[in-house]
Design goal:
90 residues, 3 strands, 18% strand
Length: 90
């Protein structure tokens, strides 16, 4: 089930969209990078951790700011075109 629970500003949307795209790019890079290049591998792992943390902090910050409805087994998603936030539950 998908339920509209809020909306963010275009500036807030741009922030999470950059993090979303960066996280996806790093995940794709991780699929092709081997641990043979230790320095690059360590940088990738560190960047993935940092980006993942910033991604989660954005959701936590926005949820607190806008007081979005939540569910134990649900997650939020954003429509990047409309800035709308949805609660998705099984």
């Amino acid at each position: 089930m998908k339920k509209l629970v809020g909306q963010v500003t275009p500036v807030e949307r741009d922030e999470i969209q950059r993090l979303f795209e960066r996280r996806n790019g790093l995940n794709e890079l991780a699929k092709i990078l081997t641990a043979d290049n230790t320095e690059l591998y360590e940088r990738l792992v560190a960047d993935m951790g940092d980006t993942g943390m910033k991604f989660q902090q954005w959701w936590d910050r926005m949820a607190a700011q806008y007081d979005w409805e939540s569910a134990p087994d649900g997650n939020w998603e954003i429509n990047f075109e409309t800035c709308e936030i949805y609660l998705v539950t099984p």
